[in-house]
Amino acid sequence: MNRDTICVQGGYTPGNGEPRQIPIVQSTTFKYSTSEDMGKLFDLEAEGYFYSRLQNPTCDAVARKICELEGGTAAMLTSSGQAANFFALFNICQNGDHIVSSSTIYGGTFNLISVTMAKMGIEVTFVDPDCSDEELDAAFRPNTKAVFGETIANPALTVLDIEKFAQAAHRHGVPLIVDNTFPTPVNCRPFEWGADIVTHSTTKYMDGHGAAVGGAIVDSGHFDWMAHADKFPGLCTPDESYHGITYAERFGQGGAFITKATAQLMRDFGCTPSPQSAFLLNLGLESLHVRMKRHCDNGLAVARFLEAHPKVAYVNYCGLESSPFHALAEKYLPNGSCGVVSFGLAGGREAASTFMKSLKLAAIETHVADARTCCLNPASSTHRQMNDEQLKAAGVPAELVRMSCGLESSEDLIADIAQALDQI
Ligand SMILES: *Cc1c(COP(=O)(O)O)cnc(C)c1O
């Protein structure tokens, strides 16, 4: 089916007389007639629900929709995007392992990988997303277990050359994990370009209304774990905590990754989404294809206006012909990228401050991808502990404003931006 139809109807097909909308199964637990019935579930010998920390029917229906949208074989929801990226990496990396990651990734993921996972004994090498094949190859070590990047990076807005990163990962016998939060599967399906695992912060466009924090992991089913069994003992050797099940044997190439992440990581870490939040996420998904188009139209209109304005020094938006990422955007994002635009004010830090407080429609928020337009000056908020030099090195110079264009009329957004620029 077409992605538009999956957005509306994917993941859940009610039977005769059943609820039209996905039911919210707000129950921690599920009843069984015999201990033997329940035992089979614990041994992963039968499918079914027993405790909502591991699986819940509402969450599973929404995960199925996201799985269909990405064109994957299995998927799971998590309580946040952070949990999704942690689970996706930790499912195949352990103490003594190594990750290759694009350097332009979300700050929270950068901290997760470079600080918190380092404490678990997992090392990382960051590479410039523009690096050559040779530079990319040089980042790998014998203990490398995964490659990570974001289709469109938050907040750098660089576009990942997915094919280049997938080919490098596969040359070294490991999967490529792509965080596809910003374009969503409506604008890009990384599996079509060789990515093996996709993650999402569903908090952003998928929810789209600033209502519920959440995440998702989707498996393409393309990666042959058993062909690289020495690298992935967690998937390819017996799990003693599940009576010696070998995930890659029992659940195959298409099911092993998500089953292990559910049975082990969700069991032990418990980053579970609530059924209520999954229901809200599904309401967002039902209109995702319609909303993404408007977010992209507004993003492009605002980027074009800013680019032509004398008080704006530069604009980062891959939809602009002037963007260094325009060619990659034409290849991977032919129908549009996202509604997030960043730009630098010629007047520096002070001009950014005046601009921000003069906006009337766009609210100052540490959020993106909402129906309502919002903006942020990282130098005076998320990165305020840094001096001007450090800000520049971090790719968020003092004059930078990140604007997430919502679903309002582009004329009104541009009029608001124009009057705020006039105040400088
Ligand atoms: C927001 C974001 C995350 C983190 O997601 P949360 O839902 O806030 O935990 C991860 N990756 C990207 C690209 C994001 O924008």
From TrEMBL:
Keyword Transferase among record annotations: yes
Organism (species): Faecalibacterium gallinarum
Lineage: Bacteria, Bacillati, Bacillota, Clostridia, Eubacteriales
GO molecular function: cysteine synthase activity; O-acetylhomoserine aminocarboxypropyltransferase activity; pyridoxal phosphate binding
Listed cofactors: pyridoxal 5'-phosphate
Keywords annotated in UniProt: Pyridoxal phosphate, Transferase
Protein name as it appears in the record: O-acetylhomoserine (Thiol)-lyase
Modified residues (N6-(pyridoxal phosphate)lysine): K204
Pfam families: Cys_Met_Meta_PP
GO biological process: cysteine biosynthetic process from serine; L-homocysteine biosynthetic process; transsulfuration
Family affiliation: Belongs to the trans-sulfuration enzymes family.
Segments traversing the membrane: none
Signal peptide: none
An example Gene Ontology CC term for this record: cytoplasm
